[in-house]
From TrEMBL:
Transmembrane segments: none
EC number(s) on file: 6.3.3.2
GO MF, any single term: ATP binding
Residues annotated for ATP binding in this entry: K6, G7, D8, F9, R10, R129, I130, G131, Y132, G133, K134, G135, M136, Y137
Entry cofactors: Mg(2+)
The reaction(s) this protein catalyses: (6S)-5-formyl-5,6,7,8-tetrahydrofolate + ATP = (6R)-5,10-methenyltetrahydrofolate + ADP + phosphate
Keyword RNA-binding: no
Residues reported in the UniProt entry to bind substrate: I52, E57
Protein name per UniProt: 5-formyltetrahydrofolate cyclo-ligase
Assigned keywords, A-Z: ATP-binding, Ligase, Magnesium, Metal-binding, Nucleotide-binding
Coiled-coil boundaries: none
């Protein structure tokens, strides 16, 4: 059972994110996508885990489309059990649990990830991820035998002054926000 502070913090961050105006959101998305593109170019990452955005998350669909035109391998989560596996991003997308869209399941073995771009609801004092409370990303990274570079994205930074995370919560190498 999660501690109340974490749950309350999650709720307040979601409220803050839902309250961003459309124009502001459009602008913030553009700025963040540009920063991500620059990071990917400089880091020379080839195998990249992205996500298919929900309404309060950074809309990285333009980034996905741009990367697919280059020689990058774009992967996204495919929910499976208590976590997910990664699949190659391809259309069409289908709406699944929690309103999350996914491509079809595929059984190939992806290459080692260089970079993972992960949406957050908030971060705590030690920059560990506060997500939606399902623990899917935590379990996924815990089960990897290596650690790719992890970037958290968020439209506006929602950071707690307290440590709310558990030892299994993932931590970012970088946070890109507006």
């Amino acid at each position: 059972m999660e501690n109340n502070h974490k749950g309350d913090f999650r709720k307040s961050c979601i409220k803050k994110l839902e309250f961003i105006g459309l124009f502001s959101k459009y602008y913030k998305n553009k700025v963040i996508v540009k920063k991500l593109e620059k990071f990917i170019k400089v880091s020379e990452s080839k195998n990249i885990l992205l996500y298919i955005p929900l309404g309060i998350e950074v809309d990285i669909k333009p980034l996905i489309l741009n990367l697919r035109k280059t020689k990058k391998n774009v992967y996204v989560p495919f929910m499976q059990g208590d976590s997910f596996k990664i699949v190659k991003y391809r259309l069409p997308l289908y709406k699944k649990r929690f309103g999350i869209k996914e491509p079809n399941n595929s059984s190939f073995k992806p290459r080692k990830l260089d970079l993972a771009i992960v949406p957050v609801v908030g971060v705590d004092a030690v920059y560990k991820r506060i997500g939606y409370g399902k623990g899917m990303y935590d379990r996924f990274f815990d089960r990897l035998s290596y650690k790719p570079t992890i970037i958290f994205t968020q439209l506006v930074l929602c950071k707690s002054e307290k440590v709310l995370s558990d030892n299994y919560d993932i931590q970012a190498d970088y946070i890109i926000t507006n």
